[in-house]
Amino acid sequence: MGSILDEDQTLTLQELCEVCGTQSSWILELVQEGVVEPMGQQQSEWQFSASCLPRVHTALRLSRDLGVNLAGAALALQLLDEIDKLQARVQMLSRCYDFEQD
Amino acid sequence: MKYKDYYKILGVARDAGQDEIKRAYRKLARKYHPDVSKESNAEENFKDVGEAYEVLSDPEKRSAYDQLGSNWKAGQEFKPPPGWDSAYSFHEDLGHGGIFSDFFESLFGHGFGVPRGAVHESRRVSDRYARVEIDLEDAYTGATRTITFQLPEVDGQGRLHVRERTLNIKIPKGVKEGQYIRLANQGGAGAKGAATGDLYLEVRFRPHRLYRVDGRDVLLDVPIAPWEAALGAKISVPTPAGTVEVKIPEGSGSGKKLRLRGRGIPGNPPGDLYVVLEIAVPPARDGRARELFKTMEKELRFNPREKLGVY
Question: Would you call A92 and B123 a contact, using CB atoms and an 8 Å cutoff?
């Protein structure tokens, strides 16, 4: 059981609110901050990729647990992404094993 | 149950003031928040810190806790002293996710868990996240794995417990690090009214002895002999999907990357596997090897540092 969170699945604004248990005003703020980017022009046409769910949840938890406002949460998400990339690069650049000659 | 030393958890002295306690809590909450920290025990530390703050920031709870005395050591077996009034039953909005240890509940009763500063109302409290570590090989072939994690659940009396759950999950072939696997309705049971949520598992790779991973690409350091580098060679290299023959071009240098197309993590498109060459020098302290190297030194006109401008 279990499917990879499909980049192709989408949610409307209403569905996203339901899944996250939050008001649309909060999601709108997330859009304004650029944390999530829906497809479509009008709010009524918005489609959110299902792959944005983890980001939305993280923003939720950061604001709930650490008292961060949404602008702060947006910054935090950005920095966390950057840290991820840097860690991957550090891993890439460091040797993973040495050949011992005996 | 074990005694918890809340002062030690926050790293403050027993006579610390409120400001100091709040500062210590905020710093540690930021440090251990599971979305911020990648450490495996981050969530546990985060809960501990929140619980310590819950007690020490409330004058009533703090003085009750202090009455236990300062002779207890963290981790010691503990029972509330006789006559302890656990009509400290807090049916209030206890923040911080509302999940407390047995130790806390034995002293202060059960709290009703509603997250502090909830941004929203009928929250789907029960979407859960967990991180699961898999082996790189699992991503090549897909796999079934048993994982254990903890889920907060609300019981019939509206109290929050933490329940350990074990699940058999299928790792799909081609999954890459940072992707989420969604298991519908496997999240915790919701508090009144909220539907059972979904479980989201974030995939991470266990560090591998041989391979490094970047997205769907995989890198492998491969040592070669000086003559293989100079003359070229056909060598065998391991890959997560089995051994492969690779042609080393003549005149290869250390650090040269050979791309094996499509041999990275499967997908659409699949990643590549990069063989990173590294020239390994045979030991030449004595014997034939030493002779041969000395001969090369004498007879070959080779200055690798020419470009540096030194002889």
Answer: no
pTM: 0.63
Q: Which amino acid is at A84?
A: D
- Give the chain A residue nearest B46 (alpha carbons): A65
Q: Residues 10..69 of B with a Cβ closer than 8 Å to A: which?
A: 29-30, 33-36, 38, 46
A51: closest chain B residue by CA: B180
- Detail the DSSP E strand segments found in chain B: 93-94, 112-113, 128-134, 143-154, 160-171, 180-183, 199-205, 211-214, 217-224, 233-237, 244-248, 257-260, 273-279
Q: How far apart are CA B222 and CA A20, in angstroms?
A: 47
Look at residues B116, B129, B115 and name the one whose alpha carbon lies nearest to residue B191. B115
- Please list the rounded mean pLDDT of every run of 10 residues in chain B (311 residues): 91 94 93 82 87 92 86 81 60 51 78 38 52 89 81 60 77 85 70 65 86 90 95 96 95 91 93 94 93 94 86 66
Token digits of residue A86: 């840097």
Which residues in chain B have Cβ-Cβ distances shorter than 8 Å to A89?
214
The pair of three-digit structure tokens given for residue B174, joined into one six-digit string: 């081609």
Residue B76: closest CA among B164, B160, B8, B161: B8
Residue B283, Cβ density class (10 Å: 0-12 exposed, 13-18 middle, ≥19 buried): exposed
The tokens for B224 are 């070669």
Chain A residues lying within 8 Å of B124, measured CB to CB: 18-21
Count CA within 13 A, CB hemisphere, residue B186: 22
Interface test with A, best of B175, B180, B196 (most A CBs within 10 A): B180
Do the beta carbons of residue B264 and residue B273 sit within 8 Å? yes
Q: Enter the ipTM.
A: 0.75
Q: Chain A closest CA to B67's CA: distance in Å?
A: 29
Q: B41 to each of A27, B2, B32, B37, B305, how far by Cα in Å?
A: 31, 18, 9, 9, 50
